[in-house]
Specification:
Layout lengths: L20 E7 L6 H9 L5 E8 L5 E7 L5 H9 L3 E7 H20 L2
């Protein structure tokens, strides 16, 4: 079984396209529903473009999603509201926003000293 990569970096067998992003969620096979995943994505005005599944070493289902937003932040929040565990995220706008957020958190830590 391929080892899962850390958050913000993931391996997906689907070629990248502009103006899309990838989100990986894990769940028990009994909790998996493609229609619920699609509803969670569509609740934030995004489209579910592609969906692939595989099992991890713990027999949990790993679901890779491609969505029609370059920044998947709203999709991630929606999936978490539906009870899915998001394990990896990749998107052009999302990746660019991670660095400023880290810098702001570091500045906040310095100011709170």
């Amino acid at each position: 079984m391929k080892e899962r990569l850390t958050q913000y970096k993931l391996h997906i067998p689907i070629p990248a396209k502009e103006e899309t992003s990838h989100v990986t969620v894990v769940c028990d096979p009994s909790d998996y529903s493609a229609s619920v995943l699609a509803r969670a994505v569509e609740d934030v005005d995004a489209h579910l473009l592609e969906l692939t599944t595989e099992f991890d070493s713990e027999e949990r289902l790993v679901v890779d999603l491609r969505v029609s937003h370059s920044d998947p932040s709203s999709v991630v929040r929606s999936l978490e509201r539906y009870g899915y565990e998001v394990t990896a995220v990749s998107g052009q706008s999302y990746d660019a926003s991670v660095i400023p957020l880290d810098r702001l958190l570091g500045l906040n830590a310095l100011l709170n000293v």
